[in-house]
């Protein structure tokens, strides 16, 4: 037997359990390219994606009537739980008053104050997605530094931003595999270095030609990779020395604590991007800037003159988004909520490490705030090149499909798990039990193959 046999077994189980799901998937093929509204929705390990009917707190139900403990939470937008009554009330109220005016509202003033207090940067702008916010940050960084090139980290993902679709291959910056419709050589204006490699970072910044470094404070899109001790302070020093702006993308690491990773760890950002969960799943993102950067933006805009900035979309900062953000910051993303999430994640991590010990697995667990990742390697990798070797597609498919068949959802792209304020200890125990059961099956199948 082999992993392929385990996948075949689990596929048969899924198909037998999900007749309505299979029927919906067949019908969807006729109206959606690839059978789904967004092709990412087909990235799950199941033969076809589940068709959701509803979700509440940290549970999701599908069309076949099965309930799932949800540790994916929409890949972060619903990080604070599905169907929050506070958000429902705010959305309903605002929808009755209008959702978009192309004008600021009283809510927007309060949201700006709340963002400044929570995350530490004084001035903010809205976008519709973190992709939009990252694009804006890159444009402004180039405008105020008069430098064309940006730097990103190998294995990063910053949304649908052309400049960031590059990786390292054999030490060289190259376009990401599978990139569709790209006609401009992205390597001309983007440099890539490994995470935690300060020597490579210093070398890349030495020419004083990099407009900004754009990175997550903890890598969460190529598996979870934690920063080495002192990495961020050394990076800040390098950026200050070379006149390079430091842009942190907190779209995932907002789960790290009440003020996000940057605030919780007393880092100094020139720009800060936050998306996904900031409005509870309503499409919205925000990005903040320091007072110095804001002054430089004003000067650059004056020098450039009037015309189309290329930054912004009509729906950005709309009244519905403002209402959602205000509700999240005041009623849902509270200190007690973060305390509960942190304790739940710590419990999950401790239980998973016990499983790894009991089953004598060469695996590890990485953890930051309410977010944890099971890594099929030990020790946990420090950079994307090493992490990619642990992301065995067959093993990931078998693992995820096994969990789905046992009523557990985790992020489909790797092994990321989120604890929400609505996640119960019982759900955590069911997740851990399912992972341990998989590990036993995994060893049985692979030892037979050997």
From TrEMBL:
The keyword Membrane does not apply. SUPFAM superfamilies: PLP-dependent transferases (SSF53383). Its cofactor is pyridoxal 5'-phosphate. Keywords: Pyridoxal phosphate. The keyword Magnesium does not apply. InterPro entries: Aminotrans_3, PyrdxlP-dep_Trfase, PyrdxlP-dep_Trfase_major, PyrdxlP-dep_Trfase_small. Coiled coil: none annotated. PANTHER family: GLUTAMATE-1-SEMIALDEHYDE 2,1-AMINOMUTASE (PTHR43713), GLUTAMATE-1-SEMIALDEHYDE 2,1-AMINOMUTASE 1, CHLOROPLASTIC-RELATED (PTHR43713:SF3). Belongs to the class-III pyridoxal-phosphate-dependent aminotransferase family. This is Transaminase. It comes from Asticcacaulis aquaticus.
